[in-house]
Amino acid sequence: MRRLLNCAANATKALRTKCLDLSPFKMKSHPLVLCSASFQGDSVCNGAHSKKALLSDPQLFDAQFDELLSELTERDMNDSGLTDALKRLKEIMVYNVPGGKKNRGLSVIGSLRELLPPSQLTQDSVQQALLIGWCIEMLQAFFLMADDIMDASVTRRGQPCWYKRDGIGLDAINDSLLVEASIYRLLRRHCRNQPYYVHLLELFNETTFQTELGQALDLMTAPPGQIDLNRFTMERYKTIVKYKTAFYSFYLPVAAAMYMAGVDSEEEHTNARHILLEMGEFFQIQDDYLDCFGDPAVTGKIGTDIQDNKCSWLVVKALEVLSPEQRSQLEVRFKSLFFCLSQSSSNKARSPSLNYLIT
Q1: Per-residue model confidence (pLDDT) at position 108
Q2: Domain with 65 in it: what CATH number?
Q3: Which residues span the domain enclosing 24?
Q4: Is the separation of the CB atoms in 247 and 195 below 8 Å?
Q5: Do residues 311 and 218 make contact, with C-beta atoms less than 8 angstroms apart?
Q6: Among all residues, which ones are annotated catalytic?
Q7: Which pTM does this prediction carry?
Q8: CA 226 to CA 217: how far, in whole Å?
Q9: Is residue 350 part of a domain?
Q10: Chain mean pLDDT for the chain
Q11: What pLDDT is stored for residue 6 in this prediction?
Q12: In a domain, 307, yes or no
C-alpha cells in the first residue's frame, strides 16, 4: 500500500499547477545507459557506455517520441498510395501530441520506478513504460482535439487549436480519430507479448469510455444558449470531474504501471483508484480557477468556461453561498453575457472574471 501511495503522490505532484501556492513538480532524473538513439542492445550495452547516453526520464521520453513518430508514419505502411495521408498523420502528431507538460506520460515511468526495485527495471521495461506514456499523451491529444471543436475554443497550449488552422476545420474530427487509432497500433506492436497486454487494452478502452461519458455529461449540463443554474450542483460537478478528467489524468498512468509491475489484484487497484480520483478532483478545481483568473501567457490557453456556460467549481461554489437575490442577479448577468456573445462576431474574447458576473 505504501508503494501505491508513493505512486499516487508522484502523479499528483506531476500535475500540479502554479496556483494555491503550489510549486511546479520537477521530474526526478534517473540516469539510464542507452547504447543508441534507437535504444537497442542488451542491459549492459555490450560494454559500450557513453556519457551522452546518460539521460533523465524527461529526456528519454522526448527521444522516444521521434522513434514512435517514425514508426507510425514512415516504417509502418508500405503502400505508396498512403504517402499523403501518412504525411498528414505526422503533421497531426507533431502539432497536437508533444506540446504539453507530458506529466501524464511521465507518470508511467515514475510510478514503475516506485513499484519495481532497480534490479527488476530492465531496459525493455523502461522502453515499454515510455511507449505507454506516449500512448497516454496521444489519448489526451485525441480528447483535446475533439473538445476544442465542441467548445469552439481558440487556442491550446499557446497556439491555435488544430481545427482553427487554415484548411483543417472539421477535418480535425477524423484527424483526432487517427491519433486514437495509432495508440492501439503501438500497443499491439510493442506490448502484445507481455502478460499485462490484455489489462492494458481493457484499461485504455475503459478509460476512453469513462472520459467520453464525462464529456457527454459536461455538454448536457450546459447546452449552448440555455441558462439553467439548477444544473450546477456540486454532485454534478464532481461526477463530471471524476469521469472527464480524473480517470485518464491520474488513474490511467498509475494503473498502467501497476499492471506492468504485476500488481493486478482488484483490491490494490480499487485502493489506488480511490486515492487518485480524489487527487484528480483537486487538480480540476485548480484548473477551473486558472481558466478564469490565470494568465493565458502562462497557462497557454484562453479561458472560456464562463462563456461556454460550464459547470465549473467557481460557479458551483458561488451558487452555494449566494443569497436568493444574488443568485437571481447572477442568472440575469449570465443571460446578458450570452446575449452579448451571441451578437458578437468574435465570441471567444478573454473570459470575464467571476466578479463581473456577481458584483
Answers
A1: 98
A2: 1.10.600.10
A3: 2-279
A4: no
A5: yes
A6: 101, 142, 147, 151, 156, 218, 244, 283, 287-288
A7: 0.80
A8: 15
A9: no
A10: 82
A11: 60
A12: no
Close Cβ partners of 112 (under 8 Å, ≥ 6 residues apart): 121, 125, 126, 129, 257, 260, 261
CA dihedral 15, 12, 215, 189 (to 10 degrees): 80
Q: Amino acid identity, residue 38?
A: S
Is 148 in contact with 162 (CB distance < 8 Å)? yes
* pLDDT tens digits for range 109-149: 999 999 999 999 999 999 999 999 999 999 999 999 999 99
Q: Which grid cell is 335?
A: 443571460
Place of cell 539510464: 32
97: cell is 501530441
**292 domain-assigned:** no
Q: Crossing angle, helix 197-221 and helix 123-151, to 10 degrees?
A: 20
Digit-coded pLDDT (tens) for 61-78 = 999 999 999 999 988 777
Cα–Cα dist 89/195, whole Å: 30
Number of residues that this document lists for the chain: 359
Residue 240, amino acid: I
Looking at the structure of the chain, the number of domains it has is 1
Q: Could you tell me if residue 293 is inside a domain?
A: no
